[in-house]
Amino acid sequence: MKTRVSDILKSMQIDPAQFSDGNLKVHSPIDGSEIGCVQMDDRASVDTKITNAQSAFLKWRAVPAPRRGELVRLLGEELREHKDALGALVTAECGKILEEGKGEVQEMVDICEFAVGISRQLHGLTIASERPGHHMREYWQPLGPVGIISAFNFPVAVWAWNTALALACGNPCIWKPSEKTPMTALACQALMERAIANFRAKFGDDAPDGLSSVIIGMRDVGEQMVDDPRIALVSATGSTRMGREVGPRVAARFGKCLLELGGNNAIIVAPSADLDMAIPGIVFGAVGTAGQRCTSTRRLIVHSSVYASLVPRLKKAYEGIRIGDPLVDGTLVGPVIDETSFDGMEKALDAARSEGGVVTGGSRVLADQYPDAYYAQPAIVELPGQSASMCEETFAPILYIVKYDTLDDAITLQNGVPQGLSSSIFTTDVREAEQFISAGGSDCGIANVNIGTSGAEIGGAFGGEKETGGGRESGSDAWRAYMRRQTSTVNYSRELPLAQGIKFDLD
Ligand code: NAD
Predict the structure, then answer these.
(1) Residue 260 CA: which ligand 1 atom is closest?
(2) Residue 260 designated active-site
(3) Can you give 346-371 as a three-state secondary structure string?
(4) I need a labelling partner for 171 at 20 to 30 A (CA). Which of 41, 147, 354, 393 fits?
């Protein structure tokens, strides 16, 4: 695997030697082998990177936004050129299949294009003033250095969602990737540095040093960034456990926080559902990325009248899933990230059994071929009702199934978990579909009809409610999170009337 990774890096004109000397060993989940080692940051180097980002901010915020967008466009060009290689590196380091690795890079290209457009649309408002001869306006100003914390399962796209918008909005970025996927992060930084060099060729030193940096390490380097008041916004993607720690720490210093945390996403299959559409939608949602997407389908809420026709077909589809090396064409499910993750899956299945669940699948496979890697047969668990284990996010390919009788009950089940990221209903009944996306329907940040829970496009705002953290990033007006709102009232009259008609007459 190491040679393969070296070849991938070389094809991106990145010297593999820079991944051969350091105190953090990187293993591929594909076969468990070591594919590199990188140097971790210490307190002093993190501090220097934050200082550099702070000085870069003072310069970058004054560069006209459309010109800032040009840097993002150049980053998009680098990503487009190296899509296949970076996608393969994602696969080697986090284990998702190559199609999904390349899809992740495509998402980066897409958000760059989106952010270039946004760089010419950082619109404010004009507001009617109650005072004569006054103008009131709302402006959006650059915020300051943005600290990005990302999870292993989307090792590059989450950075791009944040960085493309943050740069267009006038903010430098410091990225703390998952300690499980540092190589993809350093490869992205290399592409960013090339984009900056190309930008400088056109615009001189408009792009200051410190505009983009990566800090490598465990959670302690993340904590240092979280606690530093120079980081204006901490955008943290990962588990709810992490968010519970990060959120209050940032709040304690009155910093801004954007949290993208765990999900526990359900699909409702209604009596009128088109099962030929529902089945591939469910299978992709539940087993894609080996069940390691925040938007993975974890719960299936099936109307009693279709249960008998749906569940056997689903089990048959599961039998045909090709599990194996995610770099090989045709593989649908790669490994889970590591042994801890597989142990978590086994524990969750044991818990479900003790709650009366009937488990199909779930065992370790390919252990002879890959003794140091963890490939799991995706599991289906049929349960008599929504149990305690169904309310937790186990980051593995487990699909729990329960029955329902009325749509109100199904929506209550769907909403009856602590997380609120993604949800969907398969129905051909327009009343049911509209009820599901009404105020009394799904309580999630994402509510889909006749598509699954995962695989969002970048054009919409992405994120969820409750324990998912409430953050929104990517499309729509998510850019506002990276800016500070400023209300400005200008008096162009010769009088000084006070608001609310208050009289304050000086003698
Ligand atoms: P994790 O929480 O273990 O780690 C995520 C990142 O947070 C890592 O970089 C880690 O080093 C860092 N971190 C952990 N504790 C920290 C602390 N106290 N201070 C600062 N940094 C800290 O998550 P993971 O196992 O890498 O990823 C899986 C989880 O991420 C799942 O729960 C999944 O649902 C979630 N996720 C959410 C989204 C989303 O957009 N909502 C996207 C991807 C993944």
Answers:
(1) 41
(2) yes
(3) HHHHHHHHHCCCEEECCCEECCCCCC
(4) 41
User: What is the tens place of the pLDDT at every residue in 409-423?
Assistant: 999 999 999 999 999
Q: Best substitution site from 175, 237, 422, 468 to test ligand 1's pocket, by max atoms within 8 Å of Cβ?
A: 237
Q: Of 207, 162, 213, 208, nearest to 71 (Cα)?
A: 207
Q: How far apart are CA 1 and CA 4, in angstroms?
A: 5
Q: What is d(CA 334, CA 29) in angstroms, rounded to the nearest whole number?
A: 9
Exposed/middle/buried for 283, CB within 10 Å: 0-12, 13-18, 19+? buried
> Measured on CA atoms in the order 39, 40, 45, 51, is the torsion positive or negative?
positive
pTM of the model: 0.97
- pLDDT exceeds cutoff 90 at 202: yes
Tokens of 497: 């009337």
> At 213, phi and psi to the nearest 5?
-145, 165
Write the pLDDT tens digit of every residue in 373-388. Answer: 999 999 999 999 999 9
Tokens describing residue 432: 């049911």
- At residue 251, the 3 state secondary structure works out as helix
* Closest to 352 in 3D by CA, of 385, 304, 314, 313: 385
Task: Give the Å distance between the CA of 141 and the centre of ligand 1.
Answer: 29
pLDDT tens digit string along 279-288?
999 999 999 9
